[in-house]
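Would you kindly consider the sequence and fold I have copied below?
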Amino acid sequence: MKDDDEDEENTFGVTRYPCMPSLVALQQMRNRLHLAFLGRKLMKWTMTATGREMRRIAGEIDAIYKGFDADLRNAYILLARSRYFYPTLNQMVLENIPNKAAVLVLPSSKAMSGVKLMSYAIIETNTQNYVHLGLEKGGQTILETKKAWLELLKRLISMLQLRTSFLTVELTNRAATKKGNVLSKIVVPRINLTSKYIVSELDEKEREETFRLKRVKQKKMADRRKEELKILEERGLDKIEEDKEEEN
């Protein structure tokens, strides 16, 4: 039992499983070999699917990181301009933290390529925080600062989700690769070696049994010939005695 896309297995340094050579053990090894091939195919499919998913996530990470430094720099510049109008802006924000957040993150799980990934849904509550901030001066700058930092917050959440998903898929891909290598390089060669050992032992037992039956048959034929010769000799002696008696 062998896949067409698999190279010839190397059994160098591989030891067989300890077992008694019998037809039952041979059938068990064939069943284990069938399961090992199914497991190896499953690991190959998992490696292919997770590899494709890793490439997709890597592309999204690359796209979301592009221009992030410029946006972050502009957001800090806008924050500095807002502080020009309100030097105590940080204290005002920290002392007047609203009871309801403007952005909520709802975690959920989804299965992609056989891997359970965490997904974070960004929900805007449309809560107007610090409505009166900037009425006196710098209102346009503060509004632009709010929008810039809100976009940065959404971007950071998406970056966190993508990085977490990539790490989870990468770990799954590594585990599948490791299991596939173990099945291909250790389990399958050991099962094949054990099956060959069982078959050779059964063939040797069959040859021994054939030779034993042949020797038994030869022994019976020799004993039968001896009995026939003995009977012939007895008949010959009886005939000689009868001839002697007739002569007398």
Summary: Strands lie at 103-112, 115-124. The chain has four helices and two strands. The radius of gyration is 43 Å. The mean pLDDT is 81.
